[in-house]
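Memo to structure team: turn this sequence into structure tokens by end of day. - J.P.
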Amino acid sequence: MNQRTHSNRPAHLARATGWRRAWVHVEAHPLAVLTAVPAPGHDIEGLIAAVPGADWQTLDAREKEYDRLDATTAVLHQAGELRSIAIYSVPEARRRPAHEGRPILLSYLDVVLQGYLDMFGEAGAVRFFETTDGWDSAPVLNDRPSPRYPRAQALTGEETAWIDAALAARGIDVRPA
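Reply from structure team:
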């Protein structure tokens, strides 16, 4: 979602119908991960972008805990006609709810929310919270002083203040690393 973390251009605003997001854990990862999950009657916002060099193999390797699912008919966008669109989703059989032992990294959440603030504004970042499950099952680990997320980004003071206020307003448990 955050265009600062990749070179996939151009990227286009999109809405995936029949999906929500969830913080989950997978056995191969020590922390919570964000995934899209099928959810009839719901939808999520995000970006679609071409895979550089059509190198799906490299992207699939990076997203190895996820299945690449065809979502061509579920994604609404203004990018013109596209042959295919994929969504990466952790398979139901391999995902468990995030929990105390698999916290959400604040540096990861910061990157996601920075992307939503950039592309959809504050209202879009609010919708991210509303369309994502798992906030009550795992704490957020404040690793900002020493980010553990590999694609962590510097935040402006305004971004930091907005994210901190949004977390506090929702009563989301943020703990020191």
